[in-house]
Design a protein that fits this description.
The protein has 288 residues and is mainly β. Helices cover 3% and strands 33% of the residues. It folds into 2 domains: 11-77 and 166-287, L,D-transpeptidase catalytic domain-like (Beta Barrel); 82-164, SH3 Domains (SH3 type barrels), CATH 2.30.30.
Amino acid sequence: MKNTKITYIASLLLATTMVFTACGKSSESNQEAVTATAEAPVVTEAPVVTEAPVVTEAPSTTEVVEENNSWSDISEVFGDEETVDEEVIDESTYIARALGSVDVYLTPDDAESTWSFEDTTEYGSKTVFLVNEIDGDWYNVHLPVRPNGTTGWVHIDQVEIRTVSLHVMVDQSERLLTVFDGDEVLLSTSVAVGTEENPSPNGYFYITDKLLTGNPSGAYGPVAFGISGFSDTLSSFAGGPGQIGIHGTNNPDSIGTAASHGCIRVNNDVILDLSELLPLGTPVTIQA
C-alpha cells in the first residue's frame, strides 16, 4: 500500500457539487447526500467474502436537497491501488480495474452480458470491481448495482488486477469507523450514520469513487467517497439512485448520532486523512 500526501489544489474545486444520492445536499448545516459504492480475504482461488448483520437506528433529521451538482474525481491525486505483487498476494485483496468498457455476465457460460460498465464512473473515477472469486480466465466480482450484494463474472481480458491491503469497518451501534491494514488499526473515528427512517445499509461494499466536492464548507465537506452500496429505503434521492457515500460535513455536532439519509459522515479533517489512505476498491463493511 502506498500513501500519498494530499495536495489540495484550488483549481480542482468546482463551483457546484454532484450529489451522492442518499444524503441530500444544501446550504444549510444539517444536510447531506448519498452515493452509490465491498472484503474478501485475499484471492488465490476463491476469496472469502463476509457480509454484515442487520441495522437498527434512531433519530431523524430533515434535509433540503439540491439536485444539480458537479464533483471532480481525485482518485489519481490521492492514494491508488498497488499493482499485483506475488510476494504480497496472500495478504491483499484483489481489485479488478477496467481497461475499457466491461461486460459482466451472470455466469461465464452466458452468451450475452447482463451488465455493461464504462471505463469510468459517472463521477469520473476509474471503474473498479472488488474480486470475490477466480475461476480460470474469469473473475467473479462485486458490482455497484442493486440489490446490494450482487455479483457477476468478468473476463480477464477486460480488466487488470490490483491489490489493496486496507479494509474499512463501520460499526453503526458504536458510531465508529476503523481503517485496518491487515490486523493493524491505522485510524479510528466517530461517525454519523443513517436515521431509523433511512438507515445506513449493512453489508460488504467497496469504494467506487473519490471526489472533491468543490465546497469544503458545504454539507459534504471537502472530499466524498462513493461506495457500492445502496439505500434499503430510498430507491432514488436528489436525482440519483440512492447510492451510499462516506464524506465530510458542515455539521460536526451530528457526529456520533444517527443523522443522515444513509451516508457515513465524518469530520472534515478525518475525510482528508481517509483520502490519503484509501484507494479505489478498498473494501467497506457496514455492520449493526
